[in-house]
Amino acid sequence: MAGFLSVLRRLYLSVYNWAVFVGWLQVLVLAVKTLKESGHEQVYSAVERPLQLSQTAAVLEIIHGLVGLVRSPITATLPQISSRLYLTWGILYSFPETQNHILVSSLVISWSITEIIRYSFFGMKEALGFAPSWLLWLRYSTFLVLYPTGITSEVGLIYIALPYIKNSEKYCIRMPNKWNFSFDYYYAAILALGIYVPGSPHMYGYMLAQRKRALSKSKRE
Amino acid sequence: MKVTVVSRGGREVIKGGFDLNDSATVTDLQEAIHKRTKKFYPSRQRLTLPIPPGSKDRPIVLHSKKSLKEYSDGNSGNLTVVFKDLGPQVSYRTLFFCEYLGPLLLYPVFYFFPDVYCFFGYSVSSVTHHPVQTYALYYWCFHYFKRIMETFFIHRFSHATSPISNVFRNCAYYWTFGSYIAYYVNHPLYTPVSDCQMKIGFGFGMLCQVSNLYCHIILRNLRGPDGNGGYQIPRGFLFNIVTCANYTTEIYQWLGFNIATQTIAGYVFLVVATSIMSNWALIKHRRLRKLFDGKEGRPKYPRRWVILPPFF
User: Fold this and answer.
1) Which residue spans traverse the membrane (chain B) (predicted)?
2) Lowest-pLDDT choice from A109-118, B146-155, B233-242, B265-274
3) How far from chain centre, in Å, is Cα A37?
4) I need a labelling partner for A83 at 20 to 30 A (CA). Which of A22, A147, B55, B213 fits?
5) Are B4 and B81 in contact (CB under 8 A)?
6) A186 CA: distance to closest CA in chain B (Å)
7) Is residue B299 part of a domain?
């Protein structure tokens, strides 16, 4: 019984990882193609569907961690997934004025390259039991460039969205109400920007440590 | 007795170690270390017995009141202790006082200086407070005043100190939540609940606060005046049915406040505080059950709710 469940788990995870891999591959191909043919203003409309699908699918990974299907701690993946979902739905989808900015291109290209490498890495591990060392190297090295470009794009887009957020009053709850609660999406966005200040060096440092561990471990093997 | 002091990496922390009297206590060792190293005062030191490599047991911490002889069985004359620096320490009294002073002082600011709401874009013409807001002020300030009094006159702490980083963390927690709740309860556009609901909320809350005080008094009497009590099975009053009755009464007390004031901010605080206290309660409950297992003449820990009957 246990053996059957473990095979089922491997099968499910393989399918999941390769499916999301295909999604992100689509994003990258469409983004580059549109950039070359039509210019950066059109990139968002070209990639919108695969981007939303692939990024939202990542919510499943939180469930995988909680249920114990995978070993990774959710404390590491939660901040990353939150910021991705915030940008995808809370900024880009909600405020179309941001969609034709050039930072959208740098954002989706940074994200898609990172995710293509990451999902193929896990996909191979689940399906074949191992991943080639060049893929391991890619997984723990591309972030050195893609984290800064991705984070800059995220912060930039939030900043650009600010005036539109303030004027639209979207997602705001105002007093008075029965539950004496208020929420201001504009100030929440400013708070989010603030979190990037300590958050980014923390995440980058975490990845550097992971890199050291992973690459030295593979050298020893 | 020759005592060698090493770091967790195996390096000698005190070159040459110490030559202490055979009847020396751990306190004497701590003072000797302090004298030699100047900056590591005793409450900063964590001394443990070395664990054999590969063993998964938790290291045995040396207790300040015990004599060194008790830890060096079999090899009397020689003792090796592992030293860890806990970092700058602050007494629990100081820590609690700082934490509680914030809410005590910040909350009334929102009540007595409604001009602060101008910062948030609200025009404040006149200061009329609903009765609920006034009672909430009294209730809140009484609560934190009570906590400060308990810190100085009731609580007996097993560990005298806490790392200084906890001051920032804990103060951030209390002061931020205190301000967050105070902002909404004293808001110019605050919507009060019914008079009946308010009375039920505050009445129930006060009952729980008084019960909470009584729980603290019971806990205090479990420990001797020199803090020597160690762990005992709590008995009497609600402790007969709940291990951490003090946390239970605290949680229900906040529930009373929230029923009376009805703010999301207050309920968020309740949920967070409950989860933190439940965590502590689980640890304490497990520790007491492990300690009082009924073997070797020790009493067996009775079946009790952990913290929140009827939930767990």
Assistant:
1) 264-283
2) B233-242
3) 26
4) A22
5) yes
6) 13
7) no
Provide the domain count of chain A.
1
At residue B15, the pLDDT reads: 82
Q: Give the closest-approach CA distance of B254 to chain A in angstroms.
A: 16
Q: Give the number of domains in chain B.
A: 2
Residues B176, B77 share a domain: no
CATH of the domain at B11: 3.10.20.90
**Structural domain includes residue B113:** yes
Question: Do B81 and B117 fall within a single domain?
Answer: no
What residues of A are annotated to the active site?
147, 154
Average pLDDT, chain A: 92
- CB proximity B157 to A under 8 Å: no
Put simply, whether A134 touches B (Cβ < 8 Å) is: no
pTM (2 d.p.): 0.82
Decide the pairing of beta strands B78-85 and B2-7.
parallel
Residue B71 sits in the same domain as residue B152: no
Interface of B with A in 189-208 (CB under 8 A): 189-191
- B301 touching A (Cβ < 8 Å): no
Task: Tell me which of B87, B120, B144 is where a domain ends.
Answer: B87
Q: Is a pLDDT exceeding 90 seen at residue B143?
A: yes
pLDDT tier at B131 (50, 70, 90 boundaries)? Answer: very high
What are the C-alpha distances in Å from B45 to residues A136, B8, B26, B32, B81?
43, 13, 11, 12, 11
Are B121 and B246 in the same domain?
Answer: yes
| C-beta atoms of B189 and A178 within 8 A | no
Average of pLDDT values for B65-71? 79
- Domain of A37, in residue numbers: 2-220
Q: Are B218 and B236 a contacting pair, CB within 8 Å?
A: yes
> What is the biggest distance separating any 2 CA atoms in chain B, rounded to whole angstroms?
80
Mean pLDDT of B45-51: 86
Interface-testing mutation among B110, B119, B180, B191, with chain A (most A C-beta atoms within 10 A): B191
Last residue of a domain, one of B87, B115, B140: B87
Q: Name every chain B residue with its beta carbon within 8 A of the beta carbon of A180.
A: 184-185, 187, 190-191, 261-265
Residue B302 within any structural domain of the chain: no
Residue B18 in domain: yes
According to DSSP H, which parts of chain A are helical? Answer: 2-37, 43-57, 59-67, 74-85, 102-128, 133-139, 143-168, 185-220
Is the domain of B39 the same as that of B104? no
Q: Which residues contact A148 (CB under 8 A, 6 or more apart)?
A: A204
pLDDT at B227 over 60: no
Could you read off the pLDDT of B157-198 as tens digits, one per residue? 776 788 899 999 999 999 999 999 999 999 999 999 999 999
Residue B115 and residue A56: Cα distance in Å, rounded?
Answer: 44
Residue B183, min C-alpha distance to chain A (Å): 10
What is the domain range of residue B16? 2-87
pLDDT bin (cut points 50, 70, 90) of residue B295 is: low
Task: Flag whether residue B263 sits within 8 Å of chain A, measured between CB atoms.
Answer: yes
